[in-house]
Amino acid sequence: MPVHPYSRNLHTVGQLRAMERAALAALGISGPELMRRAALAALNSLRRRWPQVRQICIHCGPGNNGGDGFLLGVLAREAGLQVEVVALTGASHGDAAAARAAWEAGGGRIRQWDAQGHLPEAELHVDALYGIGLNRAPEAAAAQLIEAINGSGRPVLALDVPSGLDTDSGSCPGAAIRADATVTFIAGKRGLYTGRAVDQAGAVELATLGVPDSVYADVSPDAQLLAAEALPPRHRHANKGNYGHVLVVGGDHGMAGAVRLAGESALRAGAGLVSVATRAGHVSALNAARPELMAHGIDGPQALASLLERASVLALGPGLGQAAWGHALWLTALEADKPLVLDADGLNLLAREPRRFGAAAVLTPHPGEAARLLGVATAAVEQDRFAAARELARRHGAVVVLKGAGSLVADPDGRLDVCPWGNPGMASGGMGDLLTGIVAALLAQGCSAWQAACLGVGLHARAGDCAARHGERGLLAGDLLVPLRALGNGMAESGFEHE
């Protein structure tokens, strides 16, 4: 991750435009000079990532992003690279017109894109079509050029934002560049880190272009990237009673694995005690597989009452089901009004019977569950994950983790953090159960709901990345438990193997 003091801050397009105006005033420079700085940062990124490349093709749109591309062409040619430029239109506007003229003044040739034509030969393509200026599907000609670039089989560097990606939401209304890397300018953009953007942007690098700290200090970010954190070391005189008692409620017939994973991850994340309230038929298997879990067969609400009294935090939902047994336990657990993590069928029941929470609560929906809670289609959630997470947090008075690529953590006041870790191997059964147990354990150890959600999401995703070193395909939820323990204790993310 970048080392700039404001590198974790993420902004909306409106904020970015205001910051750019403030930067020009603070630096006392013109728009073309800022554009030249962006072009130089792009050239440096290109040569650092692909030092062997000698032949590039830059694709320029009509606005300022295209201007960055034209000036990159000027600088790249001066650096000895062979440069081809493809323009989407016959003219550029604003400061980009001067950049286009500078390219042509040095003898640069511009090939206007013809949908019937072919891309020039190149070892690398640079996307400078739209940047932050597009929040709709690209028009037909641009879409054809984007698809041609994506299908070229060559690496792609995007300038500021991959064209076709909505900078605010991370969604793609139509065709969008799939970049190997994106060098983004001045400040972080929130849409680069969640949803479709995780595939489209590739490796993201921030180039601040020499903008002074005062510009960043004057604008509160809309969101932030999570920081890599761990819990502090324990006192030497600690005992298990100091670290809370998590009660996992769930595991209807055939779902013992869900409560085992949630319970075991709670133990590995440091809870002092973990009990499991589940179907009686699961108890023997749980005792044999993980005797540290205190498994109890529960046939209804009355049997659950004594366990609720002893618990400090509830993990409600893994494998719970929505039939009479699960619904009765759900109601009884919520009436205890204890800090809790609600997941899986606990969320599906909440969609049927909405409520706001009084005690500390963390909800951990995937997009489908979020859609049911909001009464909308899943596609609507994915179209604006930021708005969905914030609305869920506001509506239920809880901290919400909207899971998926670039998981979001939102609180009822609108604060939001974005997780920059995780991988496709984690798209497998049981991963959500692990997260439920981790967050519950952190609540039990004294974290606030916000702290538990942020730290838990980060540990879960980073453990997944460590486990994926052995390959993403075939990754199991249980593979995360060893790196989870190491990361929770502040150990380095390398130097340990799976048991």
UniProtKB/TrEMBL annotation:
Keyword terms: ATP-binding, Isomerase, Lyase, Metal-binding, Multifunctional enzyme, NAD, NADP, Nucleotide-binding, Potassium
Keyword Transferase on entry: no
CDD domains named in the record: YXKO-related
Catalytic activity from the UniProt record: (6R)-NADPHX = (6S)-NADPHX; (6R)-NADHX = (6S)-NADHX; (6S)-NADPHX + ADP = AMP + phosphate + NADPH + H(+); (6S)-NADHX + ADP = AMP + phosphate + NADH + H(+)
Binding site for K(+): 65, 127, 163
PROSITE patterns in alphabetical order: YJEF_C_3, YJEF_N
GO biological process, alphabetically ordered: metabolite repair; nicotinamide nucleotide metabolic process
Quaternary structure (record): Homotetramer.
Family: In the N-terminal section; belongs to the NnrE/AIBP family.
Descriptive protein name: Bifunctional NAD(P)H-hydrate repair enzyme
Native source species: Rhodanobacter denitrificans
Gene: nnrE
